[in-house]
Every structure is written in C-alpha cells, then in structure tokens.
Amino acid sequence: MLKHLKLTNIGPADTELEFGKRLNLITGDNGLGKSFLMDIAWWSMTRKWPAEINPKLTSGKKALPRGDGDAKIDFSFTGKSRSVEYISTYARRDEAWTGQQGRPANPGLVIYAMADGGFAVWDPARNYWRTQGGVDVQDRPSAYVFSPTEVWDGLPGTEGNWLCNGLIRDWAGWQKESGTAFKNLCAVLDVLSPDTAEKLLPGELTRISLDDVRDMPTVRMPYGKDVAVMHASSGMRRVIALAYFLVWCWEEHQKAAKLLSEPTTNQVVFLIDEVESHLHPKWQRRIIPALLNVTQSLIAGAEVQLLAVTHSPLVMASVEPRFDEAVDAWFDLDLVAAQSGQQPTVEFKKRPFVRLGDASRWLMSEAFDLGSARSLESELVLQEAAEILSEQEIDHAKAKALDARLRGLLGDTDPFWIRWRYVGEKQGWLR
C-alpha cells in the first residue's frame, strides 16, 4: 500500500500526501497534474516509468525537475514484509532518478489503468528480482506495459515470444475452455455492469473478416443481439478492457506463483486515471463501488488500495455511502490566484469528505469549483437577477429586460421563478 509521497521541485508544485489505506480520490482541473501524480505513484512502487518500458505510449514519460536545484521524490509504502521509505534525487548528468542499490521492496501486485486505454502491471511473481548464486539479479521484465492496441491484440516480447495474448485471443480461449478464467471474467463483467437490466454478458464467438482468422468475442446486448467486442461502444470497451485486465493479471499471477511454489500476493494497488472515461452517468454512479467489490472478491483475502482520478460529480456522490475517513482520502488540485503581478500557483490539498447528496452540489463544491450546475449563460443571467433582487429600489425597465432574458433561458418550472415573480408582482414590474 502506498503510504506517503513528497515531491520537491517536480510537477506543478511541491506537495506532500498521506494516502488512505483503501480508497483515494483525486480531483482537479485539467493540466494541474492529476495524471502526472498517477505516473509518480506507479514509478514509486515499480521504479520504472511506463513509457520507459513501452515507448509506444504517448503518456507516462519520465518526470523532470521543474526548475534549477535539487529535485526529489520521497515516498513510502507497505512492502511484503515491512514498511519501506525511499528518497530519490534527479541526477541531471545521468538524466535519471537515483535510488538505493540492490533489490527494492516488494509492493505487491500493482495495476495501472491509464486514461488513453493503456494498461500496466507489476507482478511480484513475474517482475521481481530473482536470486542466483546468492546474488540478486534483475533479469526479468521490469513490468508489463500495454499500449491501448496491445491490450486487445497482445503484448509481444523482445525475442519473438508473447508476454500476453491480448483480450481477443485470451477471451476466446477462456470461453472455449469454460474454466475458472472464463467464470471469473463473467463474474467481473456482471459486477461492472451498468445496472441489473443491462448486464454485460458474453455472447457466441464469431468472425468479423475474411482476413482475420481470430475467433472474436462478443457481448450480448440488452436488445438480444451479439456484438463483437471490437464494435462495442467506447464505454463498453473501456469496462470490458478493465474486466479482462483484472482477470488476466490475477490468473497469470496465480500461475506464476504456483510455478515458483510461492504464495500469491496479499496486497493489490490499483491506479485508475479518469475512472469515468466514456461512461454513461448511470455507469459513473456504480464504477468505484463496483471496482472495489470486484477486486476484493476476485483476489480474496488481499488488501486492496484504489487510487482514482475523476472529473465526475456522480463518481464523488457514488462513494458517499461507503467513504470512511479512517481508510479513505480525497485530494484536490486547485489553481490559486496570486497577488497582482504574480503568477497563479497550484495547490494540492487533502480535503475533508462531506456528504453533499446531490451530484449538482458536488459540481459546486471544492472538487469542481463551478458557480452553479446550470449552463454558463443561465448562471450569468441569474447572477444579474440576484443583484437586482438585492437592491432597495429596483429599476423597472432593467428588471423587465432581464425578465425577457430569463424567459429565454429558464424552464417554466424552474424554482427561481417563485422568488422572481413574488418580488416582481410586489414591486409592480410584473403583472
């Protein structure tokens, strides 16, 4: 479990975070460093940048100092046998982040779902250093990092081998075998479904082209037709890929642990960027609870920590019933206005989680900083109307002109009309 992270001269601003043991939510405007923070979290536990392992990625590049002087990444996490703390500094001549020599600590299974559809996994059974002749040797893959295409078509090795068959081949193979892997996939898809009336169910295998001999998995749509997974909606493909990758990571970890005659890991850290990406609101409302439930049930007995970046007020509202300050945390990035003549600064805060109930209230909370949940035009006109209503003497001509604008923006049942009409009729400029 990732416990602590302190950044000095790296990223938009220096910051220090203490993570919750179970759920960590990260909000903030675009460009303030949320995805960057996820890359740092991944690196802290694996010591490799995603794009360093797979150059096909367009994100996950090595972090660089923000300015002159020392740059440091200070982090700690709970390892397999003990808690560990590291301080890494940036060596400018080597263009690399330094660290302690020798075998690093084992953070457990680390899974990273990137915003663009790429995935990465660090598996203690397959990626950890091995001991040869009493000496620690790092000759295994540093991690498995997938571009979005490789998640579906497979991840090739450097020697003509396959590190992963990919979703299409694995799903088809599991379905033909009808073994534990396919049962787990069906169970995960069921939990990650948008609601009870629209279950994600595997359909019959099919072919989609004369030039593609692969058996193509399908999903059975609510209207009874089977649709090839490649032709499913963006939201469905996002969730299908999440389900597949979770099952694949756990299946391969179990097989590798058995081959090594070692127990499976008892720790899982799951990083997911833009968790609501492509998802309909009814799916956004379910995704975080579903991911916690499915990870804990699939990997029974393991401690699970989830770090999730979100722009969705529905995601924030969805965790209210289960958010526990003792094990969960909410972090928020904000651009803070500076004094005249100075640049704004980025501020990273751990905020107290308050149950606001309604998603529109979350939109207007510190998480998203909107003035209202309305259109921008409506918000501006309502601000003018509020100013008029607060005046002691109201200019009737101005009020009538504003009334005409309000009628073009607000619906007939909008609650604002009650106050507006009451004051207007009382003042005489509405009849």
From TrEMBL:
It comes from the Bacteria. Residues 23-317 form the ATPase AAA-type core domain. Keywords: ATP-binding, Nucleotide-binding. The keyword ATP-binding applies. SUPFAM superfamilies: P-loop containing nucleoside triphosphate hydrolases. Gene3D superfamilies: P-loop containing nucleotide triphosphate hydrolases. GO terms for molecular function: ATP binding; ATP hydrolysis activity. Coiled coil: none annotated. InterPro entries: ATPase_AAA_core, Bact_Antivir_Def_Nuclease, P-loop_NTPase. It holds the Pfam family AAA_21. PANTHER family: ATP/GTP PHOSPHATASE, EXCINUCLEASE ATPASE SUBUNIT. This is ATP-binding protein. It comes from Zoogloea oleivorans.
